[in-house]
Amino acid sequence: MPSPRLRRVAVLVLEGAKPLDVGIPAQVFTTRASMPYEVRVCGAAPGPVTGGDGLSYHVVHGLDALAWAETVFIPGYRFPDRDDPPPAVVDALFDAHARGTRLAAISTGAFALAATGLLDGRRATTHWHYTRALAARHPSVLVDENVLFVDEGSVLTSAGAASGIDLCLHILRGDLGVAASNHAARRLVAAPYRSGGQAQYVPRSVPEPLGERFAATREWALHRLGEPLTLELLARHAGVSPRTFSRRFAEDTGYTPMQWVTRARVDMARELLERSERSVERIAADAGLGTGANLRLHFRRVLGTTPSEYRRTFARGG
Known about the structure:
The two termini are 16 Å apart. Helix content is 47%, strand content 12%. Strands 2-1-5-6-10-9 form a six-stranded mixed beta sheet, with helices on both faces. A two-stranded antiparallel ribbon has the order 3-4. Strands 7-8 form a two-stranded parallel sheet. A hairpin with a 5-residue loop joins strand 3 and strand 4. By secondary structure, it is an alpha/beta fold. The chain contains 14 helices and ten strands.
C-alpha cells in the first residue's frame, strides 16, 4: 500500500517569536507514521532570528517556504501592536493565501495576519491582553475576545499559547478525522477537544471549585454518551441546580449542556465511522443519538455532511 502524500506545513518565525507558539505547530504536525505532514520552519530569510523570552532561532528556510506550504502557521511575537512585519513578509502571506494556502495565526500572530488585510470584515481573535489593541490597530477586523479560536475557512486565529493546541487539533480533525486528532491529543496529553466558542478564561465571578466539578461532570458524561443524559442528571452530578448548571456551563464552554452532549455524541459517532464497519443505525444507538435519521440530521447541522460521506473520507479500514 503506497504511503500517504505528506501535507506541507510551514511555521513562520518572526522577530520576537514566542517559544511555545513556535513549538506547538512544529510538534503537533511533526512527521510520523500517524501524522502525514512535513514541517518547515522559516523566517523572513534563512539564518538567525531573535526570539522572545530569552530564546533565539536558526531557521533553514526563508519566505520560499510559504510558496511551498499548504498550511502556514504564524506564531505570536513580542510587541505586535507597535509595527507590522516587514513588507516582504506581509506580501508573501497575502500571495500564499491567493494561491489557496491556509493561514493560521497563534496568539499575537493575528496581528501579522491582519496586516495583510485578509481579516478585514472577518471574525478573529488573539491573546486576551491584545484584543483591544488588535481592534484599534485594525478596526475592520471583527475581534472576538471571548473565544479560544476562530475558523474563517482559509484564515484561522487563536488566543494564547495553549489555545494554539486547540487550533492545531481542530485543523487535524478537519484534515484527518477525529480519531487522528484524539490520537494526537493523547500524545500531547491535551484535552481532545475544546470548542472554539469556549471562553479564553473563566470569569472571576465563577467559583473555582464549581469549575472543577463541571470538568468532572463533563468527563462523567463522556463515558455515558450511549445512555440517557438529561439536564437534571448532569446538574445532579455537578451538585447544583439545573438553572445554575445551565448558566455556568454555557459561560465555561460556549454551549448549553445539551448542545455540548449532542456534539460529544456526534464526535463519538465520527470515531465509530472511522474505526468500525458498524451500520449507521447501530452507531446512532451506540452514540446515544437514537436513530440513523437523527444521526444524519445532526451530522448535516454540525458538520455539513452525511455519515456516509464522512466515512468515505476518513475511514481507516476499521
